[in-house]
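Incident log, support desk, overnight shift.

02:14 A customer reports that sequence design results differ from what the structure should imply. Their input is reproduced verbatim below. On-call engineer (initials T.W.) acknowledged and began investigating.
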């Protein structure tokens, strides 16, 4: 279900719902992407299963890459979700594209729906993509 929604700063967003989960996605200046989600009362979305991964991709009608709430900003190679859970321990759900994460230059944030496999890539945090917020 989608309901028109107008976010702060005039950005256009849409709300979605799935069971008890609600969320917002939007296009915005992505150096404030996390703050944007927090200002809406949420955070960048996490993917903890293939189901989550497919759901967020489906939600994204324009088929472009989008930010997810995964980063290794605190310690290189230690991936943490914005919900506080790990993506570096054995058994954690991972959906990296082949050869990723490669930290090319300095890549500490992650977008999904990228490349031929439409999976995850680590990329510079000040790049511009859409955000998916979990509410
Ligand atoms: Ca990194
Ligand atoms: Ca990369």
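02:41 Re-run completed on a clean worker. Output:
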């Amino acid at each position: 279900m989608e309901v028109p929604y107008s976010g702060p700063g005039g950005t256009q967003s849409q709300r979605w719902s799935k069971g008890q989960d609600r969320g917002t996605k939007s296009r915005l200046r992505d150096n404030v992407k996390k703050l944007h989600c927090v200002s809406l009362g949420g955070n960048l979305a996490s993917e903890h299963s293939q189901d989550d991964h497919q759901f967020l991709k489906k939600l994204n009608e324009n088929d472009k890459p989008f930010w997810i709430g995964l980063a290794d900003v605190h310690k290189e190679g230690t991936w943490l979700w914005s919900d506080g859970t790990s993506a570096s321990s054995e058994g954690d759900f991972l959906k990296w594209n082949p050869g990723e994460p490669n930290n090319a230059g300095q890549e500490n944030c992650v977008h999904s729906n990228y490349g031929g496999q439409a999976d995850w890539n680590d990329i510079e945090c000040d790049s511009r993509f859409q955000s998916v917020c979990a509410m």
